[in-house]
Specification:
The protein is mainly alpha-helical and 218 residues long. It has twelve helices and no strands. It binds iron/sulfur cluster.
């Protein structure tokens, strides 16, 4: 089988593969409410999900909702989230985000992209995580794994997360977007690592551009 130039077909082959590998892939960040997922996603910037899940156990006991967090001292929030790094930014984002939820939305998390991205510390990526997992609004989250895997295989070419999000959006049915991202993240963590992708054990190697360009020449 040669390299397929048809991105749609490539995307279908990859989707079928990751669906077999990770049929139950779901959101990795522990949460019980949209607010808690918003908090966890803000904390996950440049930090592993495992570490975020460790700190949110106590953080959510102390501040389970926007009201309690909006009444917190920033210094106290910092003490709960120390292991996740970027302390100043993240603690301020959590506090300001909670305050604007209280001020503008009665403490509830809004369910549109436009409203979400106006909250402190919330970009498109975070907004899409919340929309996809809490409100069943399909969203494509281009994190480091999704970006790397899609461009390596050759189903996306753009350099920016926004560009890749758009390309993937044209290839994949919206109904699979959210789960597809969870599956692709697992695939990126377990097989298509950034430094040493495990190409020999990957069924995509017959189709993958990165494999054709790098591995077959060694
Ligand atoms: S063949 Fe290698 S580079 Fe291509 S998707 Fe598989 S692991 Fe990643």
């Amino acid at each position: 089988v040669g390299i397929s130039n048809d991105k749609k077909e490539l995307a279908e082959i990859f989707t079928e593969y990751i669906s077999r590998l990770y049929p139950d892939a779901a959101c990795f960040l522990n949460h019980k409410t949209p607010f808690q997922l918003l908090v966890a996603t803000i904390l996950s910037a440049q930090c592993t999900d495992e570490r975020v899940n460790e700190v949110t156990v106590e953080l959510f006991k102390a501040y389970p909702d926007a009201k309690s967090m909006s009444e917190a001292e920033i210094e106290d929030i910092k003490n709960y989230i120390r292991p996740v790094g970027l302390l100043n930014n993240k603690s301020k984002s959590l506090y300001n985000m909670s305050r604007s939820l209280m001020g503008n939305y009665g403490g509830e998390v809004p369910d549109t992209l436009n409203e979400l991205v106006k909250l402190a510390g919330v970009g498109r990526k975070t907004a899409n995580v919340v929309l996809g997992n809490c409100f069943d609004v399909p969203g494509i989250t281009v994190d480091t794994h999704v970006g790397r895997v899609s461009t390596r295989i050759g189903i996306a070419e753009k350099k920016t997360p926004e560009g890749i999000e758009k390309e993937l959006g044209e290839l994949l049915e919206p109904v699979i977007w959210t789960k597809w991202c969870h599956q692709t993240i697992l695939f990126g963590r377990n097989i298509c690592h950034s430094r040493k992708p495990d190409c020999e054990n990957c069924e995509m190697k017959k189709y993958c551009l990165f494999y054709a360009d790098n591995m077959t020449k060694k």
